[in-house]
Specification:
By secondary structure, this protein is of the alpha+beta class. The chain has one domain: Galactose-binding domain-like (Jelly Rolls), CATH 2.60.120. Helix content is 16%, strand content 49%. The chain has 1 helix and 7 strands. The protein has a 7-stranded antiparallel beta sheet, with no helix packed on it. Strand 4 and strand 5 form a beta hairpin. It is elongated.
């Protein structure tokens, strides 16, 4: 894996991307988080090279799983992957073939809101509603 400066045709935005490549790397890659996440998203680029008869699957430690990408052509594929689900602390991607280079770009994730933050948000909303009601009188 490399976090490297983008070359033309690889990064979807910006100048860096994560490359998961080649025979020497594992058939799976795991993103691990120290706090539970409720959402994860990424652009998956150049998946399916040199052949496009492979699939990229995902699974979370919360039990969500499925196909995250398929390669409609042998190169220059760009697909968006996103999941919103039960809180998870890891997501693993697994490929069928190890001679494929896969690029992850524009990776986003969202932590599960803490109960205190939710309560604070509700109190703020009630306060704003009350202020609005008082101004109308």
């Amino acid at each position: 894996m490399f976090n490297q400066t983008a070359m033309p045709g690889h990064a979807t935005h910006g100048t860096n991307y994560l490359v998961w490549f080649g025979q020497t790397s594992s058939s799976s890659i795991t993103f691990t988080f120290s706090i539970a996440q409720s959402a994860f998203a990424a652009n998956i680029v150049d998946f399916g090279y040199p052949t496009h008869s492979t699939s990229l699957t995902f699974s979370t430690n919360a039990g969500d799983n499925g196909v995250s990408a398929v390669a409609p052509k042998p190169e220059d594929n760009e697909q968006f992957f996103g999941i919103i689900g039960a809180p998870f602390t890891s997501i693993t991607f697994t490929r069928d073939t190890q001679d494929d280079g896969i690029i992850f770009d524009e990776v986003y994730y969202r932590a599960v809101p803490e109960s205190g933050a939710i309560a604070l948000g509700c109190v703020a909303a009630v306060g704003i509603a009350d202020m609005s009601r008082r101004r109308r009188k």
